[in-house]
Design goal:
Order of helices and strands: EEEEEEEEEEEEEEEEEEEEEHEE
CATH class: Mainly Beta
Number of domains: 1
CATH topology: Beta-galactosidase, Chain A, domain 5
Helix content: under 10%
Number of helices: 1
Shape: globular
Strand order of the largest sheet: 4-14-21-20-17-15-16
Strand content: over 45%
Number of strands: 23
CATH architecture: Distorted Sandwich
Radius of gyration: 18 Å
Length: 283
């Protein structure tokens, strides 16, 4: 279990600049976006020596998002175990969120990072392309199956935003936190975030998305691609995670059950999937 990977003073970010905006990228720690300023101040929870890898910045999730209970992946003919890396006994957030990524292209306003990771049935290539403008950051995240067999995949991002009012375009949520305990049901009460509010403490997975835009403090978050679910984690005072992902929490098991909105996709050898995220300054 390796949850407590921290960032020391010797870890140097790659910094992009465009007009008043800047983005700090940490290739050695999951290739993550460690801080973002679109001219209005810091928008993310930045690195600190006492924070584990899962608790800061905006990191990539692939080839699955959220948790595999016990690290067990059972899907179609696949029955394998992935390394448990979280205190709750799960394999969380894929294989690439804390390992080093290689910088394959760098310019003043852009950078491209890659990583090859293997585990269980997976041999995949992850790619991130960052492009910074004066008032927005674009991030294209992709995963390619480089193995010799089809594999189930999910992907997404896990940003730690400054806490406050959010707006989530979701008509349904999965009951149970963080793992679904039933099929999606209409949002109501504190889980109805469609009109914008400061959420109560939750670790909930939402689905039946009605648009490709969510609002968080200081930002409008857009996405293009097969995003089917959105996770909201608001249990740490002062911070909030809003995670547009392509699969539901525990999506592989839900897919095997035939549950709706699981979002799991199967990639054949050499097949790819990608999502474009856009962080837009919200004045």
């Amino acid at each position: 279990m390796t949850e407590r990977t921290t960032v020391g003073q010797d870890v140097t970010p790659l910094i992009l600049r465009s007009g008043p905006s800047s983005a700090e990228i940490y290739p050695d720690v999951g290739g993550r976006l460690g801080q973002l300023d679109l001219g209005t101040g810091s928008l993310l929870r930045g690195p600190a020596v006492d924070l584990g890898w899962g608790h800061w910045g905006c990191y990539p999730l692939l080839p699955w998002s959220n948790r595999l209970p016990g690290g067990h992946l059972a899907f179609d003919t696949i029955d394998e175990h992935l390394p448990v890396n979280w205190p709750d006994g799960t394999a969380i957030h894929g294989l690439a969120a804390s390992c080093p990524w290689a910088v394959v292209e760098r310019a003043e306003r852009s950078a491209t990072l890659e990583v090859r990771v293997s585990g269980g049935p997976y041999h995949v290539l992850g790619t991130q392309r960052f492009e910074l403008g004066p008032s927005e950051l674009q991030l294209r995240l992709a995963v390619t199956n480089e193995g010799d067999r089809p594999v189930p995949v999910g992907m997404g991002i896990h940003p730690w935003f400054v806490g406050g009012r959010i707006r989530i375009p979701a008509d349904k949520r999965w009951p149970g936190e963080p793992m679904p305990s039933g099929y999606p049901e209409p949002v109501e009460g504190p889980y109805d975030l469609r009109d914008g509010t400061v959420p109560v403490a939750m670790d909930a997975c939402f689905t039946s998305l009605t648009s490709t835009v969510a609002d968080v403090p200081g930002l409008r978050l857009h996405w293009e691609g097969p995003v089917t679910n959105l996770v909201v984690y608001s249990a740490e005072p002062g911070w909030i995670c809003v995670e547009p992902v392509t699969m539901a929490n525990n999506g592989f098991e839900l897919a095997q059950q035939g549950a709706p909105s699981h979002g799991v996709q199967v990639l054949a050898p050499e097949e790819s999937m990608d999502v474009l995220y856009r962080f837009e300054r919200l004045l």
